[in-house]
Amino acid sequence: MTGSFLGILGVTLPVFLLVGLGIFLRKSNLLPAEAESPLMRVIVTIFYPALILGAVGPTPAVENVGVVGVSIATGFLTVLLGFGVAWICAPMFRLKLGKGRRAFSFTTGIYNYGYLPIPLVFAFYGQNDGTLAILFVHNVGVDLAFWTVGVLILQGIFNREGFRRVINPPLIALVLALVLNYSGIYATLPNWVEQFLEYLAEIAVPMGIILAGCAIGGLLTRDAFRSGWNVVTGACLLRLGLLPVFFLAAAYFLPLPVELKRVVAIQAAMPAGLFPVVVTGFYGGRQDVAVRVVVSTLLVSVITTPLWLQVAMNLVGNQ
């Protein structure tokens, strides 16, 4: 894979075009809001677990339990870094107290760790070299930070419900894939099982990105950006400017497994995650702040993501 800006732009552009397609489908009502939830439920419970089973089960990258543990810890710590930087810097953008600072810190601190980086890992490293498997393991740590420390930031109190939410179909699929890998059972599965999982996996990523675009389309209202430009500025500077420097420094200097270095480098280029908007509203946070963070970082990342990925490829792409 070429490390030039245009080469990397050619990889990232189809991902953003899928997001744009989702926005169009929502705005044109070809895919109405009431259809999003059942479709996403199918993806999360069927297609995404199939993708994990196909990527993690047969790869030797996860055979070392220490690598698995370090990958989970890295996902957890990178999110804590995002929360901390956003919380400390929030007063610089007139978010000093209350729910606005909480929503800003939570939403800016969570990068898009799911559907956006998956096709990029596919494009740069393929499915079978172990990087995709490490991405899924790494994301367990992200989920853990999301539902524990993240909810603590939003509510100001610890909530054990977060631990229960970590137990979800993707995590169950990951545990099953690791068991199949460690036990050697995966190698004995007939070809038709692998083919079936591959068919399901091929649906997961594009459909997930399209539905994410649909959700963003629902957030793009006329009033969304009539105010709150301090939030937009702060989110873009931190999520797309400062935090990538920390992520790439960690990927370059820390003695991490090569596959994990690649994952951290790609995550460095990601905008804010989408799902925190929903969670912010659920826990009574400033959803208007969350919307501005998510939409603004996504739009700006069309330019910044290829730039940061170019840096990432030069740092760790050939390791």
Characterization of the model:
InterPro entries: Mem_transp_PIN-like, Na+/solute_symporter_sf. One of its GO terms (biological process) is transmembrane transport. It is found in: Cell membrane. There is one protein chain. It contains 13 helices and no strands. The chain is mostly helical and 319 residues long. It has one domain (5-316): Na+/H+ antiporter like fold. The longest helix is centred in the C-terminal third of the chain and has 30 residues, at 287-316. The chain starts with a helix and ends with a helix. The mean pLDDT is 87.
Per the CATH scheme, the topology name is: Na+/H+ antiporter like fold
Radius of gyration: 19 Å
Q: Give the strand content.
A: under 5%
Main β-sheet description = none
CATH architecture heading: Up-down Bundle
Poorly predicted runs are none
The H/E string reads HHHHHHHHHHHHH
Count of alpha and pi helical runs: 13
How many β-strand stretches? 0
Mean pLDDT score: 87
Q: What's the helix and strand layout?
A:
Blueprint lengths: L4 H23 L5 H24 L8 H25 L8 H12 L7 H9 L5 H25 L5 H6 L2 H15 L7 H29 L9 H25 L4 H11 L6 H8 L4 H30 L3
Helix pairs in contact: 1-9, 1-13, 2-8, 2-9, 3-4, 3-6, 3-10, 4-6, 4-13, 6-11, 10-11, 10-13, 11-13, 12-13
